[in-house]
Amino acid sequence: MKPHRRSWLTLIGFLVVTTLASSLVFAVAFAGVTAVIGDDFVQAADAPQAESTAPERGFSGIITDARCGPKHSSRGKSAAECARFCVANGSKYTMVDGDKTYELAGDSEQISKFAGQRVTLVGNLNGETINVNSVMLQAENGRALR
Description:
rod-shaped, alpha+beta, 5-stranded mixed barrel, 6 strands, CATH 2.40.50
C-alpha cells in the first residue's frame, strides 16, 4: 500500500486555514468590543464638564486684552479704550500680573468697566483662565475699593 502524501498536505493546509480564519474572527470581535468601549469614553469626554470645583480666590493685576497685553499701541486712546476696542474686534480680556497673564471668563460688561485699571478679581482658576465672579478696583495702596 502506498502512503497518501496528499492527505498530509491537505490536513496541514486545513489546519493553517482554520487557524488563520479563527484568528481573523477573534480580531474582528476584539476590534468591535474596543470600538464600543472607546466610543463610550469619547462620549464621556465630550460631555459638558461640571464647573470647576477649585475654591474661589483673589487675583490682582491690570485688566487688558490678549492682543495688546500690558503695552497698548494707543494711537490717541487710553489703555481702557484700547482694550475695549481690541475686545470689540475679537480679542479677549486678560489680566496681567507681573509676568503672568490670565484669560478672563465671565460677565464681559462687568470686566469692561474696569479695563485698563488695576483690580482685584475674585474667581476660580481653571488652567490659565480665571472664571470671574466679582471685580473690585484697587486703590494706589493696593487695597481693594468697593
